[in-house]
Design brief:
single chain, 241 residues, alpha/beta, Rossmann fold, 7-stranded mixed sheet, two-stranded antiparallel ribbon, 8 helices, 17% strand, binds zinc ion
């Protein structure tokens, strides 16, 4: 990562587009902290407010939505994120259709990021214990479909240019988190506790904060030792030539 920061001579504008509040912190919170510490600008766009993130049938989705927006702001503040926006698609029902692709194309053209972060739509399950949330797959698919070829090509959604004055834009790099197919490893040992602190801001999603911290601390690399713990976040990094 140090070599990436060294090669990024100018301050970068980094756009994170993911499905839910808490996705950025869980997926790549330490990396986001590294970037803001180094003077880069990080902006979140979350496609839903996570209004189904509860198992209690008496929960009022609009109230949960409000709570989760605030939790997301608190978590982002821990990481030094500059701006947060919500697109307010219904949680759990995200599909990578043309309407979503157009909305994301609009965001990319407005924000004009140097680096775009999303998650891997190919991750259907993780190990033998977890199915990836369908919103994560839908978000990743819709974002990648918007990055290429729509956002950079004026013939896609021409009304965005005609009616809203949004010029085509393609980010220089895409960083895909939540992937089982990484090509880039970022060592983030020094930022792991900060990531945990950011994740813990999502109080509505956590029944036992101490247990969660313990679980996250156990996600060290296999070669880690008690004296020398090592933590990583991995990505599929695509650099357009
Ligand atoms: Zn999620």
């Amino acid at each position: 990562m140090q070599s990436v920061l060294e090669s990024w001579k100018e301050p970068k504008r980094i756009l994170v587009i993911l499905a839910h509040p808490d996705d950025p912190e869980f997926f790549c919170g330490a990396t986001i902290a590294r970037w803001t510490d180094a003077g880069h600008t990080v902006v979140y766009w979350l496609l839903t407010c996570g209004d189904k993130g509860a198992a209690d049938p008496d929960v009022v989705p609009s109230e949960l939505c409000g709570d989760r927006r605030q939790e997301q702001r608190n978590a982002a503040a821990v990481l030094g994120v500059h701006e947060i926006y919500f697109l307010d698609y219904p949680d759990g029902y995200l599909v990578p259709d043309l309407a979503l692709r157009k909305d994301i194309t609009r965001i990319i053209r407005k924000e004009r990021p140097d680096v775009l972060v999303t998650c891997d739509p190919k991750t259907l399950y993780v190990g033998g214990e977890r199915i990836n949330h369908p919103d994560h797959r839908a978000a990743g698919q819709a974002v990648l479909d918007a990055v290429f070829p729509a956002a950079g090509n004026p013939l896609y959604f021409p009304e965005l240019m005609r009616d809203e004055g949004l010029q085509p834009h393609t980010p220089a790099e895409v960083w895909i988190c939540g992937t089982l197919d990484p090509n880039f490893t970022h060592v983030v040992t020094d930022l792991w506790e900060r990531k945990i602190r950011a994740v813990q801001q999502h109080a509505s999603q956590i029944s036992d904060p101490e247990n969660l911290a313990k679980r996250l601390r156990s996600r060290h690399t296999p070669d880690t030792t008690l004296e020398n713990p090592r933590y990583e976040e991995v990505f599929r990094r695509i650099i357009f030539s």
